[in-house]
Amino acid sequence: MLLLIDNPVVAAGLESVLHQLPRVRKVFAATAATWSRAVDSGDFQALVVTLEQWELLGTRGAGDRQPLPAVLVLGDAPYDRYSELFVSLPVDGFLALSELTAPSLDDTLRRALSGGMPMPTTLARRLLSGSHTRTRVLGQGPHSVLLTPRETETLALLAKGMSNKQIARVLGISTHGAKRLVGSILLKLGSPNRTSAVITALKEGLV
Protein backbone atom coordinates (compact mmCIF):
# COMPACT_ATOMS: atom_id res chain seq x y z
CA MET A 1 0.00 0.00 0.00
CA LEU A 2 1.40 3.36 -1.05
CA LEU A 3 0.48 6.46 0.95
CA LEU A 4 0.65 10.06 -0.22
CA ILE A 5 -0.40 12.00 2.86
CA ASP A 6 1.03 15.36 3.84
CA ASN A 7 -0.24 15.30 7.44
CA PRO A 8 2.13 13.16 9.56
CA VAL A 9 -0.50 12.51 12.24
CA VAL A 10 -3.00 11.21 9.68
CA ALA A 11 -0.28 9.19 7.94
CA ALA A 12 0.78 7.53 11.20
CA GLY A 13 -2.81 6.73 12.12
CA LEU A 14 -3.56 5.23 8.72
CA GLU A 15 -0.38 3.15 8.78
CA SER A 16 -1.42 1.77 12.14
CA VAL A 17 -4.82 0.73 10.77
CA LEU A 18 -3.32 -0.73 7.59
CA HIS A 19 -0.99 -2.97 9.57
CA GLN A 20 -4.08 -4.59 11.09
CA LEU A 21 -5.25 -5.81 7.68
CA PRO A 22 -4.05 -9.26 6.53
CA ARG A 23 -4.35 -8.29 2.85
CA VAL A 24 -1.82 -5.46 3.31
CA ARG A 25 1.74 -6.76 3.28
CA LYS A 26 3.69 -3.58 2.65
CA VAL A 27 3.09 0.07 3.54
CA PHE A 28 5.23 2.90 2.22
CA ALA A 29 4.65 6.55 3.07
CA ALA A 30 5.78 8.60 0.06
CA THR A 31 6.23 12.33 -0.37
CA ALA A 32 5.43 14.69 -3.21
CA ALA A 33 8.98 14.09 -4.46
CA THR A 34 9.03 10.28 -4.21
CA TRP A 35 5.50 8.98 -4.87
CA SER A 36 5.83 8.79 -8.68
CA ARG A 37 9.03 6.73 -8.47
CA ALA A 38 7.29 4.44 -5.99
CA VAL A 39 4.46 3.91 -8.47
CA ASP A 40 6.99 3.11 -11.20
CA SER A 41 8.43 0.35 -9.03
CA GLY A 42 5.23 -1.62 -9.61
CA ASP A 43 5.26 -2.84 -6.00
CA PHE A 44 1.91 -1.39 -4.95
CA GLN A 45 -1.66 -2.39 -5.75
CA ALA A 46 -3.25 0.67 -4.20
CA LEU A 47 -2.47 4.30 -3.46
CA VAL A 48 -4.16 6.28 -0.70
CA VAL A 49 -3.92 10.03 -1.26
CA THR A 50 -5.39 12.94 0.70
CA LEU A 51 -7.64 15.50 -0.95
CA GLU A 52 -4.89 18.09 -0.58
CA GLN A 53 -2.39 15.93 -2.49
CA TRP A 54 -4.82 14.51 -5.06
CA GLU A 55 -3.88 17.02 -7.77
CA LEU A 56 -0.35 15.60 -7.86
CA LEU A 57 -1.73 12.53 -9.61
CA GLY A 58 -2.55 14.67 -12.62
CA THR A 59 1.17 15.16 -13.29
CA ARG A 60 1.68 11.57 -14.50
CA GLY A 61 1.56 11.01 -18.24
CA ALA A 62 1.51 8.28 -20.86
CA GLY A 63 5.30 8.05 -20.78
CA ASP A 64 5.46 6.79 -17.21
CA ARG A 65 6.63 3.20 -16.79
CA GLN A 66 3.73 1.96 -14.69
CA PRO A 67 0.03 2.89 -14.67
CA LEU A 68 -1.38 4.16 -11.42
CA PRO A 69 -2.55 1.50 -8.99
CA ALA A 70 -6.07 1.68 -7.54
CA VAL A 71 -6.46 5.21 -6.17
CA LEU A 72 -8.34 5.84 -2.93
CA VAL A 73 -8.89 9.47 -1.97
CA LEU A 74 -8.96 10.17 1.77
CA GLY A 75 -10.84 13.10 3.26
CA ASP A 76 -14.16 14.46 4.46
CA ALA A 77 -16.68 16.36 2.28
CA PRO A 78 -14.56 15.96 -0.87
CA TYR A 79 -17.27 17.06 -3.31
CA ASP A 80 -17.96 20.31 -1.49
CA ARG A 81 -14.26 21.19 -1.38
CA TYR A 82 -12.89 19.78 -4.63
CA SER A 83 -15.84 19.14 -6.97
CA GLU A 84 -13.89 20.35 -10.02
CA LEU A 85 -11.34 17.55 -9.58
CA PHE A 86 -13.87 14.72 -9.76
CA VAL A 87 -13.98 14.70 -13.55
CA SER A 88 -10.29 15.30 -14.21
CA LEU A 89 -8.26 13.16 -11.80
CA PRO A 90 -7.96 9.37 -11.42
CA VAL A 91 -9.90 7.82 -8.56
CA ASP A 92 -11.22 4.34 -7.78
CA GLY A 93 -12.85 5.03 -4.43
CA PHE A 94 -13.19 7.40 -1.50
CA LEU A 95 -12.48 7.07 2.22
CA ALA A 96 -14.08 9.35 4.80
CA LEU A 97 -11.46 10.23 7.39
CA SER A 98 -14.11 10.73 10.08
CA GLU A 99 -15.51 7.21 9.49
CA LEU A 100 -12.23 5.35 9.04
CA THR A 101 -11.93 2.00 10.81
CA ALA A 102 -10.00 -1.18 10.05
CA PRO A 103 -13.14 -3.00 8.78
CA SER A 104 -14.28 -0.08 6.59
CA LEU A 105 -10.80 0.35 5.15
CA ASP A 106 -10.51 -3.37 4.44
CA ASP A 107 -13.90 -3.39 2.71
CA THR A 108 -13.10 -0.30 0.64
CA LEU A 109 -9.75 -1.73 -0.42
CA ARG A 110 -11.33 -5.07 -1.35
CA ARG A 111 -14.02 -3.42 -3.47
CA ALA A 112 -11.61 -1.05 -5.21
CA LEU A 113 -9.21 -3.86 -6.13
CA SER A 114 -12.10 -5.92 -7.53
CA GLY A 115 -13.14 -3.10 -9.84
CA GLY A 116 -15.85 -1.54 -7.68
CA MET A 117 -16.34 2.13 -6.88
CA PRO A 118 -16.55 2.37 -3.08
CA MET A 119 -17.52 5.64 -1.44
CA PRO A 120 -19.28 6.79 1.74
CA THR A 121 -23.08 6.94 1.51
CA THR A 122 -23.01 10.67 2.28
CA LEU A 123 -20.78 11.31 -0.73
CA ALA A 124 -22.92 9.16 -3.04
CA ARG A 125 -25.99 11.16 -2.02
CA ARG A 126 -24.14 14.44 -2.49
CA LEU A 127 -23.06 13.45 -6.00
CA LEU A 128 -26.60 12.49 -6.94
CA SER A 129 -28.24 15.59 -5.49
CA GLY A 130 -25.57 17.90 -6.88
CA SER A 131 -25.82 16.44 -10.37
CA HIS A 132 -29.60 16.36 -10.60
CA THR A 133 -29.74 20.13 -10.55
CA ARG A 134 -27.72 20.24 -13.77
CA THR A 135 -29.25 17.28 -15.61
CA ARG A 136 -29.80 17.68 -19.35
CA VAL A 137 -32.00 15.54 -21.56
CA LEU A 138 -30.04 13.22 -23.84
CA GLY A 139 -29.46 14.83 -27.20
CA GLN A 140 -29.94 18.44 -26.07
CA GLY A 141 -26.51 19.21 -24.66
CA PRO A 142 -23.32 20.19 -26.48
CA HIS A 143 -21.69 16.87 -25.55
CA SER A 144 -24.53 14.46 -26.35
CA VAL A 145 -23.59 10.80 -26.06
CA LEU A 146 -25.06 7.83 -27.89
CA LEU A 147 -24.81 4.53 -26.04
CA THR A 148 -25.82 1.09 -27.23
CA PRO A 149 -28.61 -0.65 -25.27
CA ARG A 150 -26.00 -2.89 -23.66
CA GLU A 151 -23.86 0.09 -22.66
CA THR A 152 -26.94 1.78 -21.18
CA GLU A 153 -27.60 -1.32 -19.06
CA THR A 154 -23.97 -1.36 -17.99
CA LEU A 155 -24.00 2.34 -17.11
CA ALA A 156 -27.01 1.85 -14.83
CA LEU A 157 -25.17 -0.91 -12.99
CA LEU A 158 -22.01 1.19 -12.87
CA ALA A 159 -23.99 3.99 -11.23
CA LYS A 160 -24.93 1.54 -8.48
CA GLY A 161 -21.23 1.05 -7.71
CA MET A 162 -20.99 -2.47 -9.12
CA SER A 163 -17.64 -4.00 -10.02
CA ASN A 164 -16.92 -5.51 -13.44
CA LYS A 165 -17.47 -8.97 -11.98
CA GLN A 166 -20.85 -7.99 -10.58
CA ILE A 167 -21.87 -6.34 -13.85
CA ALA A 168 -20.87 -9.47 -15.74
CA ARG A 169 -22.99 -11.63 -13.43
CA VAL A 170 -26.09 -9.43 -13.82
CA LEU A 171 -25.74 -9.19 -17.61
CA GLY A 172 -24.82 -12.84 -18.04
CA ILE A 173 -21.54 -12.11 -19.80
CA SER A 174 -17.86 -12.65 -19.09
CA THR A 175 -15.86 -10.33 -16.84
CA HIS A 176 -13.77 -9.43 -19.89
CA GLY A 177 -16.94 -8.45 -21.72
CA ALA A 178 -18.05 -6.27 -18.80
CA LYS A 179 -14.63 -4.63 -18.69
CA ARG A 180 -14.85 -3.90 -22.41
CA LEU A 181 -18.30 -2.30 -21.98
CA VAL A 182 -17.12 -0.14 -19.07
CA GLY A 183 -14.07 0.93 -21.08
CA SER A 184 -16.30 1.91 -24.00
CA ILE A 185 -18.52 3.97 -21.70
CA LEU A 186 -15.54 5.80 -20.21
CA LEU A 187 -14.26 6.52 -23.72
CA LYS A 188 -17.59 7.84 -24.99
CA LEU A 189 -18.11 10.01 -21.92
CA GLY A 190 -14.52 11.26 -21.99
CA SER A 191 -14.06 10.18 -18.38
CA PRO A 192 -10.74 9.14 -16.78
CA ASN A 193 -12.42 6.97 -14.14
CA ARG A 194 -15.67 5.29 -13.12
CA THR A 195 -16.68 8.00 -10.67
CA SER A 196 -16.41 10.81 -13.19
CA ALA A 197 -18.26 8.65 -15.75
CA VAL A 198 -21.23 8.36 -13.39
CA ILE A 199 -21.15 12.09 -12.66
CA THR A 200 -21.07 12.90 -16.37
CA ALA A 201 -23.87 10.43 -17.05
CA LEU A 202 -26.03 12.10 -14.43
CA LYS A 203 -25.36 15.51 -15.91
CA GLU A 204 -26.23 14.25 -19.39
CA GLY A 205 -29.41 12.59 -18.20
CA LEU A 206 -28.17 9.12 -19.15
CA VAL A 207 -29.13 7.53 -15.81
UniProtKB/TrEMBL annotation:
GO terms for molecular function: DNA binding. PROSITE patterns: HTH_LUXR_2. It comes from the Bacteria. The keyword DNA-binding applies. One of its GO terms (biological process) is regulation of DNA-templated transcription. InterPro entries: Sig_transdc_resp-reg_C-effctor, Tscrpt_reg_LuxR_C, WalR-like. The keyword Transcription applies. Residues 140-205 form the HTH luxR-type domain. Keywords: DNA-binding, Transcription, Transcription regulation. This is Two-component system, NarL family, nitrate/nitrite response regulator NarL. It comes from Streptomyces prasinopilosus.
